[in-house]
Amino acid sequence: MDAMTLHYESIIFDGHCDTLLEVLDGKRRLNERSTEGHIDLPRLREGGVTAQVFAIFIEDKYLPAKAAKQTLRLLDVLYTELAANTDSLVLATRAEDIERAKQTGKVAAVVGIEGAESLEGELGLLRIFHRLGVRLLTIAWSRRNEAADGIQEARTGGGLTNFGLKLVEECNRLGIMVDISHLAPAGVRDVLETSSKPVIASHSNAYALCPHPRNLTDQQLTALAEKGGVVGVTFVPSFIAEDRKEASLEKLLDHIDHIVRVAGIDHVGLGSDFDGFSPPPPAGLEDVTRLPGITAGLLSRGYSADEVRKILGGNFLRVFRQVAG
Question: Residue 129 belongs to a domain with what CATH number?
Answer without folding.
Answer: 3.20.20.140
